Amino acid sequence: MGKVLGNRYNNKLTRFIPCCIAITVVFFTNFIEAKATIGNSIYEVSSNNINMIREQHKFIIDAPIKFYNDIKRLEQVIDFKFKVPDFFPEGYKVQELQLKKVSDKDNVLEIVYGNKDGICSLQISEQDPSESLKAIENGKSKALENSQVEISKQPMKIGDINGLSVILTTTFPAKKAIEDQFSEIKAVSNYFSWKDDGLWYSIEYKSESKSEKSSNNLLELSSDDIKNIVKSLKYPEDTKDSNYCIKNLNDGNIEMNIYDREDIEEAKNALGFDPKFPIRISNDISITNSTARLVGDLNNNKEKTCYEINNLYSNKNGSITFSQSVNSSVYDEIMRNKYIKINEERNVEKKVEELRIENNKVFKRSQEGIVPQVNYVWKENNIYYSVIFFVNIENCDGIVKEFMNSKPLE
């Protein structure tokens, strides 16, 4: 599952990278974000925790980073029984629940807490915390050329709590962007790690960025705060003062991610129909991401809301999105005017080609440019479908036929 629309982020990158470039293509009120992380870590299970290991959960989409709205769903899919803090400093609330895959067998649970001034994170894992923290940081920074991650650890005691001080230092090299020269930046994150019932817990208590020109302290928790967090650990069902639920689709959440059959069932209830869900179209085309999200009022009826499911597929050097909804507004507009608006602000319109595929009336539009794309829109049984090809636009009609003939997940 996903979250109330916040940043689908890499925590450290949003803090320390001075600039980023993004290309967003919007069609059928659709956006899809793909995320990935790479890492290797040492798998370590204490004897006290062996009896807690469950059979590995079966995911339909085994994304490297999985976002959830509810701690209860995380308990269902994670392979160890964990605790969470029932205390956090005033003003902090749970913003993100993430399950991060650091190796084929190992996962790290990351909980992100935030207030008006910033965010901090708690990692829970079975592995040595220095290994899992470094693996996560490497995954976040790997997109930046020549960035380096260094780690150090030493014993640390807070009150009567014995643990480790783990310090991650990520160096982002100097870069020249157009006329501006960005100097080298060091992002330093300090964690206190301790062990509880065979699991390692690591709370980020200090974070800062340093460059030749400035030094910014982004986060600092007091020793009392850390001590209270550690002593408040409870199993999720026993917490009283902390809210680890960020709503689900039927409670008004804006977006959720889909990873398994339970997620599809929840999405189906919000959508009002059982969506087609092809996992693989060919050897080159397979699903990589799926989201269900609120797209607004149903056909301009303010008393009814409408959801849409969007699947993202790899396609050699390009990608494909497959969208489904009961909202007919885009289709109806094309039927009336025989064009698609490709830029609402500038009122740019594009004529469409009408064709038939599998006896369905289909509207097709091609667009050239830096990111070539081909869009298809059609209707089946009062459900409205869209397929968009990006970059690789070969054999589009044939691939659309495969999407048409696909079925809901059995």
Summarize the structure.
This protein is 16% helix and 42% strand.
Task: Provide the residue-averaged pLDDT.
Answer: 82
Radius of gyration, in Å, reads: 23 Å
Q: What pattern of helices and strands is seen along the backbone?
A: HEHEEEEHEEEEEEEHEEHEEEHEEEEEEH
Termini, distance in Å? 20 Å
Tell me the overall shape.
elongated
| Beta-strand residue fraction | 35-45%
Helix proportion range:
10-25%
Structural class by SSE content: alpha+beta
Q: Please tally the β strands and state the result.
A: 23
Number of domains: 2
Q: Main sheet? A: 9 strands, antiparallel
Features:
disordered N terminus, 410 residues, single chain, 16% helix, membrane, Protein Transport Mog1p, Chain A, alpha+beta, eight-stranded antiparallel beta sheet, nine-stranded antiparallel beta sheet
Account of the 3D structure:
This protein is of the alpha+beta class and 410 residues long. It has two domains: 35-238, no CATH class; 266-405, 3-Layer(aba) Sandwich (Protein Transport Mog1p, Chain A). Helices cover 16% and strands 42% of the residues. The strands form five sheets. Strands 1, 3, 4, 5, 6, 7, 10, 11 and 12 form a nine-stranded antiparallel beta sheet that branches. An eight-stranded antiparallel beta sheet has the order 14-15-16-17-23-22-21-20, with helices on both faces. The protein is elongated.
